[in-house]
Amino acid sequence: MPGRRLSKWVVAVPMAVLALATIYPLVFTANVAMKTRRDYILDRFSLTGSLNWDNLVTAWTSVGMARYFANSLVVVTASVILLLLLGSMAGFALSQLPFRGSKALFLGCLAALFIPFQVIMVPFARVMADSGLIDTYPGLILAYVAQFLPFTVFLMTSYYKTIPREIVDAARIDGNTVYGVYRRIMLPMGTPALLSVGILDTLFCWNDVLISLLMMPSADHRTLMVGVTSLRGQYSDDIPTFASGVLIAAVPVLMIYLFLQRQIADGVTAGSTKG
């Protein structure tokens, strides 16, 4: 019917414009990364006539993107493992093992979600400096865990609340300890939530610039995103090399969004549709 067709166009046109606005920066960055310095200066918006991989090789080897990539990989992997472990334990305790003050503790986790890092940045940096954790991998890992743990606890608690408490009671009657219930029952049943939350935590940690820049001032310990931002000043006259660094940093995130978009959507809606 004409009305239904019109309604489809009303939705399709804005979505198409939004998709183009999202895709164009990626295409433009990839196009610039494949240009030579001379071609970019002559015409920055034209399509490249050939694939020039020299800029990517230079960014990966000479500029130090390989080292920054390895730093990010180590820090993000350790941070996400700790976040999932602590978040799943806390979610299990808050949802299935009620104790005095559990509701207040959960509300405290919710309140922590509304506190921007910029508000606590100065005292946080002072505490980390006094503890000798500045410019160390454990310091940055602990910083990520402290920043993103409330979000992880909130989603895991919301998910575990959907599991009937009778399952936990039956496992306890069968002789399982609290740790046994967590390891044998809650962890396997919470796999979908753990996967979704793990993906989101990975994206948060990987894309972070502010915390990493605060905790890792040394050039050797920079993460990938901080390394990319430093290229803008160091290679301000070599935009293709800078674009190559941006492309290297964007590829892992792009792959995650392309292949795990359903899990990301489930993780985003877990706190609002469960619990």
From TrEMBL:
PANTHER family: ABC TRANSPORTER PERMEASE PROTEIN MG189-RELATED, ABC TRANSPORTER PERMEASE PROTEIN MG189-RELATED-RELATED
Subcellular compartments: Cell membrane
Bilayer-spanning residue ranges: 9-28, 68-92, 104-125, 137-156, 239-260
Similarity annotation: Belongs to the binding-protein-dependent transport system permease family.
Species classification: Bacteria, Bacillati, Actinomycetota, Actinomycetes, Streptosporangiales
Keywords noted in UniProt: Cell membrane, Membrane, Transmembrane, Transmembrane helix, Transport
Natural source organism: Sphaerisporangium flaviroseum
Domain of life the protein comes from: Bacteria
Residues covered by the ABC transmembrane type-1 domain: 69-260
SUPFAM superfamilies: MetI-like
Membrane topology of this protein: Multi-pass membrane protein
PROSITE patterns tied to this protein: ABC_TM1
InterPro entries on file: MetI-like, MetI-like_sf
Entry protein name: Carbohydrate ABC transporter permease
